[in-house]
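Recall the central idea of this unit: under ordinary conditions, the amino acid sequence of a chain determines the structure it adopts. In this exercise we apply that idea directly, starting from the sequence alone.
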Amino acid sequence: MTASTPAQKRLILIVDDDPLLLDFLGEVLGHAGYDVAKASSAEQALQSIAQREPDLALLDIHMPGMNGLELAKQLHATSSVPFMFLSGRGDADAGKQAASYGAVGFLVKPVDEKHLMPAFAAGLARADEIRQLRRTELNLNAALAAGRETSLAVGLLMCKFQTDRNTAFEVLRDHARSNRRKVNEVADQLLAAEETLNSLHAAFNNRLKK
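Accordingly, the structure predicted from this sequence is:
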């Protein structure tokens, strides 16, 4: 069995206004098995991202026009693209700024090739962790919402049929199973039907008062 490599063609976007550095980084990453997209400005980067979101973006902090920090802020607000920053030596505040903007890594110019791949591997690993946390949070929020709907539906059945909570839940669950549906889907439908009935009840009352 051969060892797994980055040859799964994960996409790295490099954003820098230095064409020589773009070519150097693109060549190194390409030889390591990554797909590489290159942009010489933030505007080009956004166009590239619109076509295909990268697994990781390397952003030069100091660029003419929209700089790397401004681009990172936009990416954070409008996408889920993880990013690393690239900056020159002696920029003492750059590391702090990178952390505050949510960067998964930081590289210093001139780029040392032997440190480059470990830095990207670590950045991708951190990006994967963040993606997993986001998925877990979304799944948890969905589960909590589904749980609230089910609890409300069980309470509604308890009131209508004067039964206990376990019986109400079992009937709801069995009905969902017999119709090959999820419990929370049936619960949501039941709550929607009750809301419709309540609206109709109010409409009938208003009509009878006339």
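DSSP finds seven helices and five strands in the chain.
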